[in-house]
Amino acid sequence: MRVMHKALLVLLSIALLGALGFAAWQWQASREQQARLATAVADLRESQQQVQRSLQDAERALTESREEQARMRETLAGARDSLAGAVDEATLRIRDDLVVAGAMRVAVAEFHAAMGRMPTSHAEAGLPEASHYRGQSLRSASLLGDGSIELVFDASSGVDGGRVRLVADASHADAMGLQWHCVTSDYPLIKRVSPACDYVARDAPSPALEVAGP
User: Fold this and answer.
1) What is the pLDDT of residue 126?
2) Counted domains in the chain
3) Which of 15, 69, 72, 212 could cysteine-pair with 167, CB 3.0–4.6 Å?
């Protein structure tokens, strides 16, 4: 009986020790799990803080970009206003100076009507020399050998040395006299100056210039 009692005590002791060991293992495992959870929570908070900082940086960058765009728009608006003002002033200068060509066209037409051909020089047409014709932006007005009139303007016209050519078309002369074509390769906005003038790019063919020849 005593032997059985001792055996039972031994078994109970072993079971108790096992239970204590298992409980200790569970406690240790729980501690480790809590530590891992705490680390994960800390990492998550750090990630959230990084995301928040990134969002704040992005918002600042966006605000700076919008401010820079606003400044650029103001600068461009000012540049457009300045350019528009300069173009308008240049347009007025050229428009006033084109009046000079009127008297020259009359002289060429009268010579052609009388002689049946184009004058080849200022003297032959009874006109002053090219340098005589000066205006707000007009530097000279030359009568070329084919009877066309070439006006040369200074920098105040918007293009230093810019040229406008008035080409006489004798092949289509009518009761009113010669027909004239106004062309330029230097002033893209020439129609603001005169609706009768055409802009022709330098590499594009010009019917008016073909009439006059080279």
Assistant:
1) 93
2) 1
3) 212
In sign, the C-alpha dihedral spanning 98, 103, 108, 113 is positive
CA separation for the pair 139, 14 (Å, rounded): 121
Helix (H, G, I), strand (E, B) or coil at 151: strand
Distance CA 137, CA 163 (A): 11
Backbone angles phi, psi at 203, to 5 degrees: -95, 10
pTM above 0.85, yes or no: no
Q: Is the pLDDT of residue 18 over 50?
A: yes
- The residue-averaged pLDDT of 184-191 equals 92
Residue 162 lies in a domain: yes
DSSP letter for 2, please.
Answer: H
Q: What is the CATH number of the domain that holds 175?
A: 3.30.700.10
Q: Is residue 45 part of a domain?
A: no
Q: Are 142 and 123 in contact (CB under 8 A)?
A: no
Q: What is the mean pLDDT of the chain?
A: 81
Residue 23: inside a domain, yes or no? no
Q: In whole angstroms, what is the distance from residue 129 CA to residue 123 CA?
A: 8
116 Rama class: left (phi>0) / alpha (psi -120 to 50) / beta: left
Strand order in the sheet with 138-143: 138-143, 149-153, 163-174, 177-184, 197-199
